[in-house]
Design goal:
With 93 residues, the chain is mainly α. The protein has four helices and no strands. Helix 3 (53-67) packs antiparallel against helix 4 (75-88). The longest helix is centred in the first third of the chain and has 19 residues, at 2-20. The protein is rod-shaped.
Length: 93
């Protein structure tokens, strides 16, 4: 009797685990420090040299959703991603 109960629990747990799928992990980025050049800013955002303003904004939006402290990221990564966006869009700050 106890064997049947344990088997049913294990089967139920395995089914639940398979239904949930693998845990989603955020891509961890290790941006280079922004030392005033556009190449480092492009590397942080992952855009090419001829990226348009729309591509820069889209890359920023995608990354900021993954590295923001409210979503499990860190304030330092958020600062670097924002600084890269500002650098490429030639904002002050």
């Amino acid at each position: 009797m106890i064997f049947k109960i344990l088997t049913a629990v294990l089967v139920a747990y395995a089914g639940w685990w398979l239904w949930q799928g693998p845990k989603k992990t955020h891509r961890r980025i290790q941006p280079e420090p922004l030392n005033g050049d556009d190449a480092a800013a492009r590397a942080v955002l992952g855009v090419h040299a001829e990226a348009s303003e729309a591509e820069i904004r889209a890359a920023h939006r995608r990354l900021i959703s993954a590295v923001h402290p409210d979503h499990g990221g860190s304030a330092e990564l958020t600062r670097r991603v924002n600084a890269a966006r500002d650098r490429l869009l030639k904002r002050g700050g």
